[in-house]
Amino acid sequence: MSKNYDVIIIGSGSNGLAAAIHLQKQGLKTIIVEQSVIAGGATKTEEITLPGFKHDLGSAILPMAYASPFFRELPLEKHGLEWIFPKIPFAHPFEDGSAYACYKDLEKTAAQFNKDEKSYKKLLQPIVKNWSQLENSLLGPLKLPKHPLKLAQFGLKAFLPAKQLVNHYFKEEKTKILFYGAAAHATLPLNNLASGAFGLVLTSMAHNYGWPFPKGGAGNFITTLLSYYQSLGGELELSHNVKDLNELPKAKAYVFDITPKQLLRIKATNFPSLYKKRLENYKYGAGVFKIDWALSEPIPWRNKKCRQAGTVHLGFSQKEIESSEIAAHQNRDNTKPYVLVAQHSIFDTTRTPKDKHTAWAYCHVPNGNLTDHTEAIEAQIEKAAPGFKDCILSKSTMNTKALQQFNPNLIGGDINGGKQDITQLFTRPIASLSPYSTPNPKIFICSSSTPPGGGVHGMCGFHAAEAVLKSIFK
Ligand SMILES: Cc1cc2nc3c(=O)[nH]c(=O)nc-3n(C[C@H](O)[C@H](O)[C@H](O)COP(=O)(O)OP(=O)(O)OC[C@H]3O[C@@H](n4cnc5c(N)ncnc54)[C@H](O)[C@@H]3O)c2cc1C
């Protein structure tokens, strides 16, 4: 590491990289310092089961990266990025063997519903249509919107709990369940205020863009970001766990891609005690239990729609999904969890040896929970895909502790950098005019503990870099 950097970024997750790229593009000299031996944070692909089977250790399906106003402007295809679009963004199988699909085509999606065709269009069409005007307000900190009327129309729906939203708009339980599949990505009880927003945003992304993923593994998204960053002259130092600001060379700004609990442990930040107290009060959300499988064949879903979907959500009644998300927040284990499954190898043959397959899944569990949920997750899949267990060649599991060992930002297995409830959605880590700044004018936060929160979209990093530019390099 040389001595003359304008900005040092601590942590090489998608947000750290986004911040570094934005600053480097403005002509500043930057370096990323990363504690791990591999860059990427919770976006990494490795052969963790059998040789030749590539598994995404953390994030796997990246519609937010594809749709990100920051990432989509970068020339990542030139640096090797290839997107794969599953025929169906996501599907949800039901107990009777039927399934609903969320197709990219909104009309085709709505046409599946017996009683809810009109109300599905009424709910989603305005958001899908106005997405380009809404995205800047939804993917950043609270500020005066450019399109207040459209945002207000969205907000009236998005502010509601997912439970209230589906009960108001839909008559069929199956339509409600399909929407819950997307809404439950919030990792919140579905009767919580604003839990509906996640369903609206993720479903709108499916209709506007699809739910794509990078060819060869989510890790390739990081490889291409890094290649672009280095082509701009950006530097990376691996295997350096930053514990003290004084161990880093002098710079005009330090941007941390870490969560409040970790920031509090960094020495020499000189934060006043009131700010420290507020960071200490920051709330973490439920954790996850994660499984990767090497399979002899694709998951044998009973329903064809599930065989054509990149993502399959599981949960066999409205009540079952609601109870699952409540249990994860009430420190209870649950034998019938809501499960998210991703199946890349059906669409991406580079992931496995010939004719073999992978699958990736997780369920929400209480923060810090150490129970092995393998049986519960496999039982849910088996219900919609009898014979699934016979296809398993090998598997790798991570409970909340293993996840935090894999990446120290995953506090207690929380994959979103903190609870995404109404009190922390736009005002994370604390309510302030600039959530990316801290009382130390040289220290900034760019992780998913800042708005707009969890997901691989780089928008926390972009906004943090903007805060650095505005306050230091005006
Ligand atoms: C199992 C799982 C599944 C997920 N699925 C999806 C998905 O399908 N789609 C999606 O969009 N998102 C998904 N996510 C969420 C997504 O991965 C995160 O929101 C995203 O990685 C956040 O990026 P970040 O840059 O804020 O932090 P991170 O990716 O967590 O990166 C933080 C980096 O900081 C480094 N670091 C920490 N402390 C220090 C230190 N003291 N010194 C130096 N370096 C340090 C870490 O090693 C890490 O590299 C998933 C996450 C997990 C874990």
Could you please describe the fold and organization of this structure?
The chain is of the alpha/beta class and 474 residues long. Among the domains are: 5-82 and 214-282 and 417-472, FAD/NAD(P)-binding domain (3-Layer(bba) Sandwich); 108-208, no CATH class. It has 17 helices and 16 strands. The strands form four sheets. A seven-stranded mixed beta sheet has the order 7-6-12-13-14-11-15, with helices on both faces. It has a five-stranded parallel beta sheet with strand order 9-2-1-10-16, with helices on one face. It has a two-stranded antiparallel sheet with strand order 3-4. Strand 1, helix 1 and strand 2 form a beta-alpha-beta unit. Helix 1 (14-25) packs across helix 17 (459-472). Residues 10-16, 33-36, 41-43, 58-62, 64, 241-242, 257-258, 262, 288, 290, 362, 403, 407-410, 415-417, 447-448, 454-456, 460 line the site of flavin-adenine dinucleotide. The site of flavin-adenine dinucleotide (FAD) has 42 residues, from helix 1 and strand 11.
How would you summarize this macromolecular structure in one to three sentences?
The protein is an alpha/beta fold and about 475 residues long. Helices cover about 35% and strands about 15% of the residues.
